[in-house]
Hints:
The protein is mainly α. The protein folds into two domains: about 5-95, DNA polymerase, domain 1; about 110-190, hpI Integrase, Chain A (Orthogonal Bundle), CATH 1.10.443. It contains eight helices and three strands; from the N terminus they run H-H-H-H-H-H-H-E-E-E-H. It has helices at about 5-20, 25-45, 55-65, 70-85, 110-120, 125-135, 140-145, 175-190, and strands at about 150-155, 160, 170-175. It has a three-stranded antiparallel sheet with strand order 1-2-3, with no helix packed on it. The chain is elongated and about 75 Å long.
Amino acid sequence: MSQTSSKAGSLLRIRMIEEVRNGNLAPATQQHCLWNNRSLARDTRTAPNQVDAEQVRAWVVVLIDRGRAPSSTNSILSGLRFFYQDVLDRSDIIRWLRNRKRPRRLPRHMTETEVKRLLSARSDLRYWTATVLTYAAELRISKTVAVQISDIKADRKLLHVQSGKGEVERMAPLPVPVIGYLRNSWQTLWP
């Protein structure tokens, strides 16, 4: 590498660091953006500011072929977009970039033994009741805390969840044993 291209590379790196900091990105994200550029330059044997769209596309394809997960690839694509749009003002190089779809996985459910162990770890009746309600009605903690007595429709075996995920109200089914637990807790805590 000649002295001139080394200087140009240094200036580009300094500009990249300045833009990353000005973008108010987290330190880990800043490091990731710089790593992307080093990796691109190493693999294409071309300075990142001299790479053309086909070289970037081929590099991304190689990363995918190496087995990069969609979330990892999407992170790299985000760094490339930042570099070419915000630092170099060359969005023509990355206009074709599309995030990869992440596979949807089913959530892991707890076994009966795990649920019993979780509940037995709660000694305070209020926390035990909140844990049962959270698990049985599939609530988030913030929604469990917001539950009011009027939200429990015991006769219909339902719980009214106000402004749930996405600010959508819903009715969550309540198993009969949970309604019994709620009644017992209410009578014990507020006789």
